[in-house]
Design goal:
alpha+beta, 6-stranded mixed beta sheet, 4-stranded antiparallel beta sheet
């Protein structure tokens, strides 16, 4: 296995320092704002491996997203530009999340479908039919999605990246790959393993936004029974996603990754070797019945292959 460049170690230490922040203080750019509990053990396992560090992750999620404002085309065929500035926590030009769950969703009982509890759970407030003349080029659509785990792992070299990619593909994340072209021109850039699977993903349009941007303007265009089917299917696929995550973690161990050794300076190394030498002498003396001789630092340290002058 290739040695780990010091520049990689520096980057890894910075990332791990950020990840060690207490959960109530940690934040990132995701809608949730922190590392998902469901893959925290996996993240810790990867980050304990020499030459690897995670840079972004999502354990998998069910979401309902309202698109941001789209560009408008005038009579001359020119785009008038964005209709709305971006909103913090949103995506695109002012898009926003109506519902996000990183665990299987609890589906409300629906004894009275006309009350539409699932529609309300998913962030929509009214139901209506879909106009036949709706323009998808300007209408802000509402999309239901289930996305399986996605994980980005930075590797110190392609040799460090290869076992990670093999483990991901064998576990069922078959759309995984390595992004490494930047390394050809930048010695401080490192291969990035993207671990993902599209096969169990799910996406469906379920509504649209009316003229204004108030919450009440988000209209659902599918029946409650269809929303129930979407949530049930997403929950089932969450289970398959969890199985693949478990297989991936097992594959990492089977591929013979070494856990990272903690660095020690010369003085600490000398003390450790000195203690080991003393312990070995005591053991040998007990086995032979001989007498334990006094420890001579200058003689015994040289015998152990150490030079305290350079420590």
């Amino acid at each position: 296995m290739d040695s780990v460049p010091p520049s990689f170690t520096l980057k890894k230490n910075r990332i791990l320092q950020h990840l060690s922040t207490p959960d109530d203080e940690y934040s990132d750019l995701s809608p949730k704002g922190s590392v998902d509990v469901g893959i925290r053990d996996l993240i810790d396992r990867i980050n304990s491996i020499e030459g690897l560090v995670t840079t972004s992750s999502c354990a998998g999620r069910i979401s309902v997203f309202l698109e941001g404002a789209k560009t408008e085309t005038n009579t001359n065929g020119q785009q008038n530009g964005s209709l709305q500035a971006a909103v913090p926590g949103g995506k695109g030009r002012g898009g926003r999340w109506l519902f996000v769950s990183h665990d299987p969703a609890e589906i409300p009982d629906t004894p009275s479908p006309e009350k539409r509890p699932i529609m309300k759970l998913l962030g929509m407030s009214r139901h209506g039919t879909l106009p036949i003349d709706l323009d998808p080029g300007t209408t802000r659509l509402v999309k239901f999605q289930f996305e399986p785990m996605i994980l980005h792992v930075m590797a110190a070299s392609l040799h460090h990246a290869q076992p990670v990619l093999a483990a991901a593909i064998n576990a069922g994340f078959r759309e995984s790959g390595v992004q490494s072209l930047k390394n050809l021109d930048d010695w401080n850039a490192f291969p990035m393993v993207a671990i993902r699977s599209a096969g169990i993903g799910l996406s469906s349009l379920i509504g649209y936004a009316l003229d204004d941007d108030e919450e009440e303007s988000v209209q659902c265009v599918v029946e409650e029974s269809y929303l129930h089917l979407l949530l049930s299917t997403a929950n089932y696929r969450f289970l398959e996603n969890s199985k693949r995550v478990g297989r991936f973690q097992s594959q990492l161990s089977q591929n013979g990754h070494k856990e990272e050794r903690h660095w020690e300076d010369g003085k600490a190394r000398g003390e450790r070797m000195k203690a080991q030498g003393l312990e070995e002498r005591r053991t040998k003396a007990m086995q032979t019945g001989g007498e334990e001789r006094p420890f001579n630092e200058s003689e015994d340290v040289l015998l152990l292959g150490l030079d305290l002058a350079n420590s």
